[in-house]
Amino acid sequence: MTDLDTLSVNTIRGLCMDAVEKAQSGHPGTPMGIAPVAYTLWQRFLRYDPQNPIWPNRDRFVLSEGHASALLWSLLHLSGVRAVDPDYEVLGRPAVTLDDLKSFRQLDSRCPGHPEYRWTSGVETTTGPLGQGVATSVGMAIAGRWLAARYNRDEFPLFDFDVYALAGDGCMMEGISSEAASLAGHLRLSSLCWIYDSNRVTIEGHTDIAFTEDVAARFLAYGWNVTTVADANDLDAVERAFHTFRAESERPTLILVHSHIGYGSPVEDSPKAHGSPLGAEGVRAAKRFLGLPEDEQFWVPDSVRERFDEGIGARGGDLNTAWVKRFEAYRATWPDLADELERMQRREVPDGWDGALPDFPADPKGLATRDSSGQVLNALAQSIPWLLGGSADLAPSTKTRLTFPGAGDFEPDDPSGRNLHLGVREHTSAAIANGMALTKLRPYWSGFLIFSDYAKAAIRLSALMEIPVLHIFTHDSIGVGEDGPTHQPVEQLAGLRAMPGLLVFRPCDAGEVVETWRLVAALRHEPAALVLSRQALPTLDRSRLASASGVARGAYVLADAPSGEPQVILLATGSEVSLALSARDELAAEGIGARVVSMPCWELFDRQPREYRDEVLPPWVTARVGIEQASTFGWDRYVGDGGALIGMHTYGASAPLKHLLTKFGFTPQRVAQVARELLAARQEART
Q1: Is the whole model's pTM more than 0.90, yes or no?
Q2: CATH number of the domain at 3-321, please?
Q3: What span, in angstroms and rounded, lies between the C-alpha atoms of 318 and 393?
Q4: Of 65, 116, 268, 426, catalytic
């Protein structure tokens, strides 16, 4: 390690200390302890162009221990990474200025407390809870292998990027990292490198109080290549470890680095070193120990900036320039494939992508929405080559397997397939889909709705990052029947709808399924959850009912009262819509005019102009009945104080579906009776 290397590492440490101290908030110890490793990676290995941080073949760096964000902000600043706007245009200004660092963790700063994708350029993913970053990195590595298999040609190696993730003890404790590491080892993702910052300290104290396993042995059992660095400050040993990773062609690599909270200074054992600022005197003492000007804040010598320019800046710029030249030649030889790649990078769909969507004729017997969804998915995937995904071991049940010729399976020895086998790993399945979307593929994953609970953290991050992941859930209600309360989702719909930015669709028939897919396949900055039935639902006769294109507005009048002036409104989603139609017919026979409103996507309906919402739900019609085989939480804003709700207030029961429907009131007779009671109560109030 040269004197300039030492100065560069200590400059990073100084910036981290100053940022945390000025904010009086944050974690200085971890970024200071692991700074030599991060510096070595960025300065000597990372293939990344700071002038074009969205270069498709860049190496990815994921800070899974996101509480150490001051480290990432310092690296982005010293590397001179440029900002990128929401339209993916590289701007002239830096992603992180020195003023941004000075406003670490403050309102509107580009240096928030944890890495936030789409907020600060150079952040590859919002890592959120510990373990999410490493799991998401597996999706990035899967995407890289698939991109290489589809688009590389002998004379045009477009994709060969590596994925690095910096993880801590907390990441290794979280179950999602075990799920992800297991799958990565099975798939032999040799482009994946996790750097385990083993500083043996968590919030409650030394890790020995709760975590004493042999992590290296665990990863060897997963099929990983494992190498150890005894001292994070030994840059030569760190460099050898990265060379070991680069030489590995059959396995993912874990670099286990032993570091110290702080940096090996006299104050490293301070309880402040991990979870809070060091204090003014502690910072001065640390700077004295490191040979930095102790009374200067946010000090960056010109020689350090030049060092980064000559290292990652020059290397990344040359690699990017060569790649752009190679891609132009590729475009001349393979124009169709080049067009796919350009559309993918802009999150666009091919011309005529929805031309082959199936049409489902009216059928009183119908089919399950999971079945119609599977047919639509297969049609779309043939038009959108980068639409791919898998299931948490449930593809035969969720109907998400791509079955057309050439679809194939993504396997260790053949990564060109578009069907992923993710195993019984819901949480990591969702995180992997996030990583694939961040690499600009259009991923989906699937499972039973009840198991969305296992994946909520990763689903939430897809919404937080505004990436178009498709979360497909089947077995959407007590229609699961004999499997009983443990498998009958009740509160899951309310939980998904509570997430800002997530579109939740529960279509009522095959026609609504088609229109749902027409919407979600073209999304660019929003994830969607498709909630589908196991049991068959009638395919509605749209010649006498409203068009399913009403899905685009979230809710629509499916069938109105004969006079057009309803006395009561029946609102429903999914399988309960056909139930509402039957109740409408029963009420009509008694001279009661009922309107049926299908509400497949609350979020889209809430975005509509007030005029449209009042047209669908006239304020003066206060007799309203909401019907859904789920928790009634949230329905009150549609039915109002004077409305009624037919929903679930328990966890269901184990029995055949027809018995469950009767027990819990999901029958036309019960719906009609509730409507009558509402109208009678209003009549009594008027008299």
Answers
A1: yes
A2: 3.40.50.970
A3: 43
A4: 426
